[in-house]
Amino acid sequence: MRTDRLTAYTDAVFAIALTILVLELKTPESTTWQSIWQIKSTFISYVISFLILSVFWNNHHHLFQLVKRINGQVLWANNLLIFTVSLLPWGAKFVENNLHKSVPETVYGTIYLFMSASYFNLYCVLGKADPANKKLNKAVNRPMQITFNIITMVTALVIGNIYCPPIIIITSLLLILTWIVPDRLIEKLYGV
User: What is the CA angle 62-51-30, rounded to 5?
Assistant: First the structure.
């Protein structure tokens, strides 16, 4: 199977999720700095969620430059990823309305964790779908960063749930920053 329909579908879901995020932005009730400060949780939730979605899309797009063949497993693994992506605007709204509360921040962190896990799953499935694609298999053979991401997020969820809920959102932000530059190995070795 070719990848063009899968990437178009994925691009559409990411675009819709980003659109939902921006449509949820509240406008200040007046033209004062105090009014802007009152909607800070909306803006913080938007910025972090926009960054997370943008980085995931960037890396997905970057990775699929190397993909030549996909199969049904890849389609389902990608559907799992975009399912988790579609949940992020909902999680962002939940956090926005309940900043510094344990349950909303845990839900948001869990969505981020599932996004990371589903992206890792997609990595693994892509490598198996096209074992002859040496470029792809070399690029996806880097589980350490993804494993670190998942373990760190699980730890943050536990600590945040017990002691300090904001640690969950802060950890999500810090972890996504480790992915902000797409895989340099792909660019360096293969000119993508």
Answer: 150
